[in-house]
Every structure is written in C-alpha cells, then in structure tokens.
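PROTEIN–LIGAND DATA SHEET

This sheet pairs a single protein chain with one bound small molecule, flavin-adenine dinucleotide, given as SMILES. Inputs appear in the order they were entered. The predicted three-dimensional arrangement of chain and ligand is reported afterwards as a token string under its own label.
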Amino acid sequence: MAFSFRGTDFIGFDGLLNDDERLVRDAARQFIEDNLIPIIEECNREGRFPRELVPQMGQMGFFGASLHGYGCAGMSNVEYGLVMQEFERGDSGVRSFVSVQSALVMYPIFTFGSEEQKNFWLPQMATGEKLGSFGLTEADFGSNPGGMRTRADRSGDEYVLNGEKMWITSGSIADVSVIWAKTYGDRGVEDGRVRGFLVENDRPGFSSWDVHGKWSLRASVTSGLALQDVRIPASNLLPGSDGLKSALMCLSQARYGIAWGGVGAAMSCYDTALQYSLMRKQFRDQPIASHQLVQEKLAWMITEITKGQLLVLQVGRLKDQGKDGFEHISMAKRNNIWMALECARLARDILGANGITDDYPVMRHMMNLESVKTYEGTHDIHTLIVGQSVTGIPAY
Ligand SMILES: Cc1cc2nc3c(=O)[nH]c(=O)nc-3n(C[C@H](O)[C@H](O)[C@H](O)COP(=O)(O)OP(=O)(O)OC[C@H]3O[C@@H](n4cnc5c(N)ncnc54)[C@H](O)[C@@H]3O)c2cc1C
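PREDICTION REPORTED AS:
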C-alpha cells in the first residue's frame, strides 16, 4: 500500500522559486504521478523500460529541456533541475534515460555539432522519435576514461571505429550513440586525441547486448556496445569536440541533473517513511512516529533534504548566470546522492519488514541509488574533485 506524495518543503523552499519554476515542477510532478507511479513497480519487477511513455515525455518538452531552438523547450537550468527532481522521485532509472537523452546526447550535439547535425538530430530527439546513448566507459576504464582503447582511424572521407563500450544506458534501444574514441591519422590533430562521433546503431559492424541480472536501475536499459570496423562518414565527427574535456563537459551537464534527482528520490523515501510512521502502531497502541528514535531519523532526513535542496538550487542559480564550476556540480552530486541513499536506508528501517517489499518505493530507490552513487563519477572521485579544488593538489 503506497502513499500518495504530499510534497516536501520544510523551510518555504517554494518561496525561492519563481512562478515559471513552480509551474514546470508541478507539471512534471503531475506527469510522474499520472503516468509513471502507477506502473513503475511492475516495470522494476519485470526489468522493463517503460518506452510507451517516451512520446508523451517528448510532447511535454522533457528532452533537451534546457537547450534553446531546434524544437527544445528552452527551460532555465533551475527549471530543468526541478524536472529531474520529479523524474527521480518517480524512478532513478527513468530519470537516467532522460538525462542521457538530454545531457549526454542532445547537449553534445548542440554544443559540439555542426549545424547540419543539429538540424537533423535535435528536433527528432526532442520529440523522442529518435533515442540516443553515450558511450564513454569501457570495461577496463571507468573512473579513468582517458585510458580508453576505442579508436577512430581516419581513412579518406571516413573514420573506421574499433572498440568496446560497457555500462551504456539505453545502448540497445538507441538510434544513435555518441561514441568517444581516440583519433589516429587525422591531419592537424595529434594522434590519440579523444573526440566524439555520432554512430548510427544500424551501421554494419555495430552491435549491442544488454546487461541482465541487475538489482539496480531495473527500469532502465544498460548495454554493452561493440564496434568492429564500423565505417562512418567524416561528417559524423562532432567537429567542436576536442579532447576528453569535451566528454567531461557533457558529464557536468548530466551530474547537475542527477544532483537534483537525488533530492527527488530522498523526498519520496522521506514522505513514505513519515506517513508510514504516523499510521503504524507498536507498543501501547501508539504510532511509531511517537518514539524518539524514529523522530531522530525523520529529523535527520528532512534536515539533509532541505540542505540538499538549497545546495542544488544555488548551483542552478549559478548555472543560469554562467558562473557555475564543475567543482560546484561535483559537490552537489556527491552530497545529494549520498544523502538520498542514507534517506532510503533510514526509510527502509522505519518501514520494518514492509520496507523490503515493492508495496513501497523505498527499497527500489535504495537499490537504484547504489548505481547513481557509482555512475557519472563515483562518490569518491567527486571527493577528489572537491579536494583538488580546495587544495590545488590532484590526488587521483
Ligand atoms: C547502471 C549504470 C549505467 C551507466 N551508464 C553509463 C553510460 O550511459 N555511459 C557511460 O559512458 N558510462 C555509464 N556507466 C558507467 C559509469 O560511469 C562507471 O561505472 C563509473 O564511471 C565508475 O567506473 P567503474 O565502474 O569502472 O569503477 P572503477 O573506476 O573501477 O571504481 C571502483 C572503485 O574504485 C574507486 N577509485 C577508482 N579510482 C580511484 C582513485 N584514483 N582514487 C580513489 N578511489 C578510486 C572508485 O571510487 C570506486 O569506489 C554506467 C554505470 C552503471 C552502473
């Protein structure tokens, strides 16, 4: 028996948002309540991505939401963040799908692509007619993507790509993948420089397979990609991509949305635990919410959620003014996902035995957040990014 979400706002946070921001947040919240909440437990149980929701997500402007032109909604970064919050309140896996489509595929096309690439791909991706994936990680190179083995050899007017990518969200359902590879034989470009390529998934030599047996992000597709002598026209290179820093710019976009998402997952866990604790009676016919130890957990959760909201709102405000740094985003991603995972664990505890079932969303959030803690820069890698920022000393 799940509870309906009542919103989480301890210190008048809504008062820090303008009318447009509240409107966007409320529309996303309603969309998630009406469309995702009723089916998510079944999707999670079956390990199924709810693809049927994609056209409606496109109509609502959720793909590439913070990009301007090319059929995109042109939201502010704070509005986009609030959308991510609501998606992750629904499910981290479905939020991951939207993050990849928006921040990891549409953003690099928008930022590094030619006008022709933008005109072709962005409008179709904004509606969800075309889906994308982002291939950076390899089985042997996760936290250190610069070690990648995937290569793109220049051959006349073409590139020939060889390599394998691993842990790629939406990899097997995508129409196109942004593949990061080391280039060789490209005149004027030093050999081994990392650049981004648009690779249509139906190119000969391109294959994908799905990771099965996941206990996390079960409503999202996670794949491996193999490229064996995949030939693409030279015009499929993202011309503005130049070195690993271009890939890291995409990750910054995605991590920003993830930091908001953590608040959403935590809100879901907190609100469920609060409502449950007021209803569940143990000892002297009293609700468990009347016990000090339960109240301590709830107080911790609402305090940390509130701090997480303020942190990510300020990062969003900086981003809207063009004053954000990747270290600010690292702090927000690291803190908010840790906070959300702790909230999920405490909520599971408050729900007792009921907490381990999918009658309630908390165990699903907890399992999902284990992935979110690892991907897009692990918790510890973000610690090192913040550490380097304050000391000036890289400690990787
Ligand atoms: C469900 C899911 C979806 C994903 N989707 C995508 C995707 O769409 N596209 C994509 O490209 N990738 C994707 N990834 C990959 C993800 O980004 C990597 O898993 C992540 O970067 C971590 O790499 P790794 O798993 O190889 O761990 P490792 O890098 O092997 O890290 C293992 C542990 O070692 C620690 N560690 C590593 N180096 C250091 C160091 N220098 N100092 C201290 N500690 C260190 C880490 O913090 C971690 O605790 C996804 C992963 C998952 C689980």
